[in-house]
Amino acid sequence: MSTIMVLNGPNLNLLGTREPDMYGHETLSDVEVLCRDTAAALGYEIDFRQSNHEGVLIDYIHEAGRRIKEGEVLGVVFNPAAYTHTSVALHDAIKGADVPVIEVHISNVHTREAFRHHSYISPVALGIVVGMGVQGYALGIQGLVHKLSA
């Protein structure tokens, strides 16, 4: 069975307690269960990770690129959180490691502060899911499988 990596950026470990009016009451553990259930229904396993550190996320993307080439991983569903708007390095890692990515955001970043309207990840993503709450992760997994199985 192939694996889908789900990567989560900074502060997502605070889901459920950080701005619940914006992000909801589900925890990152709840999101992991949702991802595992969604992937299992499609015949995939999940490798679920979170880091507050940009370099660690870059290492995960490099690992995903290697594992994709080895046939172990299909692709990545990635919520880069605040790094979306600041990280050329994550953009370069995705592009350089040739990793198919679905970018996910719990909130609709386009209705928020102006600095959140720009993504360094979107230009290298297969697709983007924004504003669908944590269900966006399930949609991202389904979209990744659909795009790469077509």
From TrEMBL:
Identify the keywords attached in UniProt to this record, alphabetized: Amino-acid biosynthesis, Aromatic amino acid biosynthesis, Lyase
Q: Tell me which CDD domains the record gives.
A: DHQase_II
Q: What is its EC number?
A: 4.2.1.10
Q: Where is this site: Transition state stabilizer?
A: R18
Molecular function (Gene Ontology), one example: 3-dehydroquinate dehydratase activity
Q: In which pathway does it act?
A: Metabolic intermediate biosynthesis; chorismate biosynthesis; chorismate from D-erythrose 4-phosphate and phosphoenolpyruvate: step 3/7
Enzyme class comes to lyase
- Which Gene3D superfamilies is this protein grouped with? Dehydroquinase, class II
GO process terms (BP)? amino acid biosynthetic process; aromatic amino acid family biosynthetic process; chorismate biosynthetic process; quinate catabolic process
Q: NCBIfam families in the record, alphabetically?
A: aroQ (TIGR01088), PRK05395.1-2 (NF003805), PRK05395.1-3 (NF003806), PRK05395.1-4 (NF003807)
Task: Read off the HAMAP family from this record.
Answer: AroQ
Q: Which family does it belong to?
A: Belongs to the type-II 3-dehydroquinase family.
Assembly and interaction partners: Homododecamer.
What's the stated role of this polypeptide?
A: Catalyzes a trans-dehydration via an enolate intermediate.
Kindly provide the name given to this protein in its UniProt entry: 3-dehydroquinate dehydratase
